[in-house]
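Hi V.,

You were right to ask for the full record rather than a summary. Here it is.
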Amino acid sequence: MTADSPHPGPVTPHRTAAAFGGLEFGIYVPQIVPDYETLAGLARTTERTGFGTLWLFDHLYAPGLPDHPALEAWTTATALLAHTTTLRVGTLVLCNNFRHPVLLARMATTLDLISGGRLEFGLGSGSVREEHRQAGLPWGSAAERSERLGEALEIITRMFASERTSFEGRHYQVRDIPNSPRPVQRPRPPIHIGGAGPEYTIPLVARYADVWNIPTYGLRDWTSLTGVLEDECARIDRDPSRIRRSHQAVLAVAAHERDLPELRARMHRRFDAAAYGIEDGYIGTPAMLVDRLGERAQRGVSAFVFMVGVKQAEATMELFAAEVMPQL
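Predicted structure:
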């Protein structure tokens, strides 16, 4: 991996969905469904209600729910982009171990072209060891997976920028591979890297990300992680203000304050793992959510990815669009 890769200017994707007070809102709906039409209907609601993005997960099956039906991420994203007109679609995040970076760069370039520049490109090192073991895919230590991810990001960013790419690394070797036509978005589809690890993740964010996706629990260490990111950017001579911050957390809207206790209890049952960071999420009345979103925006978050369940997604989006968005 070279140390002198050029850092692009701010990515200017073709955004046609509304942004509110400079903030962008997206919906993360795990595709744990038995049929495509369910997701297609949610995508149409997402687009109609003014949310800018729809996000999927990338796993071989629903983590922890191997017997539940679930749709594959890349195929689903392609179909959703084909069946919408303004909605942007991405995956938080694609697993680098599932697809060779040359193939992935070609897939992303093609989908960006087909969708008229509406692809959001998230990539990570992998998070579920068991699915790798079952499929016979390489896993390795966190350091090895991060090194593999760094090489993949180097190849993919070069392929987005150039018609031909060569690369010689420990994990990947690429020799004069063409990529034509180029992506619609310039200089490339926005690259999202998620996580809060100061040793492996943040250096990759500094070098490659257009958007740093802060997971549910990441706000707890926001100040220190921001310092790490700024130091890493200084080390490679990149302006950290060119990296947008997004926060991924649970969303649940209560129409009335009297509904809050039951809603909170339900969300704690639904998202009971500590990693979901319920208390750092967005559960409250419209007025409460406006205040919390404003406070997060003051801290530098400009995009929000709201985690919702399939069954509650449509009603949640409708209420948020009617009662929260107008106040922003």
